Amino acid sequence: MSRKVVRSSKFRHVFGQALKADQCYDDIRISQMTWDSNFCSVNPKFVAMIVDASGGGAFIVLPLSKTGRIDMSLPTVCGHTGPVLDIEFCPHNDNIIASGSEDCSVMIWEIPDGGLISPLKDPVVKLDGHSKRVGILSWHPTAHNVLMSAGCDNVVILWNVVHGEAVVRIDSVHTDLIYSACWNRNGSQILTSCKDKKLRVLDPRKGSVICEKDKPHEGSRPVRAVFVSDGKILTTGFSRMSERQVALWDPKNFGEPLTLQELDTSSGVLLPFFDPDTGIVYLCGKGDSSIRYFEVTDEAPYVHYLSMYSSKESQKGMGYMPKRGLEVNKCEIARFYKLHERKCEPIVMTVPRKSDLFQEDLYPDTIGPEPSVEADDWFSGKNGEPILISLKDGFVATTKNKEFKVIRSLMATTSSSSSNRQSDSAVREHRNPLPVYCVLMNLSVTNKLILPFFLFHIQDVQTLQALQNEVKELREMIEQLTQQVSELESK
């Protein structure tokens, strides 16, 4: 009698949990468009959602901390003349977001730090080049100000956003509607899936096909594809019997899939989100009420089912938080922003750990916001690997830069006044069984620097005079520190 061996993995017990109602975003009219995009984009500062709008297209951008009921009169980004189909935040600047619309245009917007206080109608840059609606947007992962767009005109355009021009136009490769388009880890290749039932790996600067696979899934419904670790490709699609499938491919040998698994018979398109740090891929189906997650490894069957998060309400879209926006101290490895009919609900994926220490195995160095190459250099042929950052010190997404400056200035102030401790220790050496208590000072500096009462033991008149001289020096020093703090706060 053989016993089944359970594969060991530190992610076997990952569990998802929706945040409480007061941490959700309520009373939002999510767009009713049937386009298969995420309808949501998030970063450590903002969450953006495509909403219904009369007389054109619009989306809202909220600071992460602005939870609860959202006022109907909240300002929106409303510069498009047609419905917005896709939005995506720039990975190198948290205040920049791109939007694609049915009006055939791509627009780049700059969101102020505190969010919008009035409707935003004028984009920073408007990119015109498509002849039909634009449904797919994707920023380059390592090159600054490089944006890819794909439209219903079967054309992929690579934009230099700084100059507002289309540098590369791939218009002779795809013969039908493009379902998905994404970059590999360093942005040297593009992966597309198309209605002509072909999966293509493209050279983005030449616009040529490196390799392609015909019919990765037998069904006629849309196929989604993403690059995973080691250059492999994960696809989601349908069988001839309309069963949803997930498959893993090696582009070096496109003949047969490394693995092909059937999931269920639902009709919703599965949107894959891959985390390169943990090797986990999350599958979120539009119209589903669940999120499945799998671990991609180098051992057969390569794609290992982990678990599933289920809820009662179906999802209209999904936003995926970058790794640098997660709460490291809570062992959070992923966070989704699930769109309902009238609200946005954050869902946290956590690995339970007893220790309060930093879990290095869960948080290897991850992609940071710093680009490794500029747009002009990338278009001329230079590639750049992602610049990694450590999450060990944590990343407080909702803290403003000004607060960090204040903290640093106070730290500098307290360290510079450490020389006063020697005079304190000298005073404490004066001991007497019959002390005379003398309150020297009680000052408050801009409600941030508070000096406590000092208690001294006075032995004779000479000691008292010496202490009075020290008090005078301390007062002068405090006045200098107060002036420094006020100067730093005004900057």
TrEMBL record:
<feature type="domain" description="DUF1899">
    <location>
        <begin position="4"/>
        <end position="68"/>
    </location>
</feature>
<dbReference type="Pfam" id="PF00400">
    <property type="entry name" value="WD40"/>
</dbReference>
<dbReference type="InterPro" id="IPR015505">
    <property type="entry name" value="Coronin"/>
</dbReference>
<dbReference type="InterPro" id="IPR001680">
    <property type="entry name" value="WD40_rpt"/>
</dbReference>
<keyword id="KW-0853">WD repeat</keyword>
<feature type="repeat" description="WD">
    <location>
        <begin position="77"/>
        <end position="119"/>
    </location>
</feature>
<keyword id="KW-0175">Coiled coil</keyword>
<dbReference type="GO" id="GO:0051015">
    <property type="term" value="F:actin filament binding"/>
</dbReference>
<dbReference type="InterPro" id="IPR015943">
    <property type="entry name" value="WD40/YVTN_repeat-like_dom_sf"/>
</dbReference>
<dbReference type="InterPro" id="IPR019775">
    <property type="entry name" value="WD40_repeat_CS"/>
</dbReference>
<protein>
    <recommendedName>
        <fullName>Coronin</fullName>
    </recommendedName>
</protein>
<dbReference type="GO" id="GO:0016477">
    <property type="term" value="P:cell migration"/>
</dbReference>
<dbReference type="Pfam" id="PF08953">
    <property type="entry name" value="DUF1899"/>
</dbReference>
<dbReference type="Pfam" id="PF16300">
    <property type="entry name" value="WD40_4"/>
</dbReference>
<feature type="coiled-coil region">
    <location>
        <begin position="464"/>
        <end position="491"/>
    </location>
</feature>
<keyword id="KW-0677">Repeat</keyword>
<dbReference type="InterPro" id="IPR015048">
    <property type="entry name" value="DUF1899"/>
</dbReference>
<dbReference type="GO" id="GO:0007015">
    <property type="term" value="P:actin filament organization"/>
</dbReference>
<comment type="similarity">
    <text>Belongs to the WD repeat coronin family.</text>
</comment>
<feature type="repeat" description="WD">
    <location>
        <begin position="127"/>
        <end position="169"/>
    </location>
</feature>
<dbReference type="InterPro" id="IPR036322">
    <property type="entry name" value="WD40_repeat_dom_sf"/>
</dbReference>
